[in-house]
Amino acid sequence: MKNTKSKKNEKSLLRVKPGSIDEFFSTVNSVMRSADKKEAIKPRIKTLSFEEPMEMLHFLSTAKLKLIHRIRLQPDSISNLAKDTHRKITAVARDINELEKVGIVKTQSVANAGHGRRKIIQLTAERLKLEASI
After folding, report:
1. For the chain, which domains are there?
2. Helix (H, G, I), strand (E, B) or coil at 24
């Protein structure tokens, strides 16, 4: 039972932080060494790393953070997200595309009662943890 709970908690957290390429490869090497030794590989928290803290702050603009907050409250379509955040659909679509590329959000196609299908934007994790040090 404990394993299920810890796996659920790990899936529900996405950490966004500055990190070097060397740190990334060090983590990969550690995991690969464990795999080579046929050791159990510990589940890791999903992490999105930026080489520079300023890159991270630029990427996570106020507009994107507002979108993330709105999606957390209620996953919804791009048009509804645009309306609720008082932004143009094209700008919201661009931000959603960028957030989806890095794994912060995902798009799910759902049935739209009597009108075919529609795309709903939702977060990939319940919590987003931002870490920065300058």
Report:
1. 2-51 (no CATH), 57-126 (1.10.10.10)
2. helix
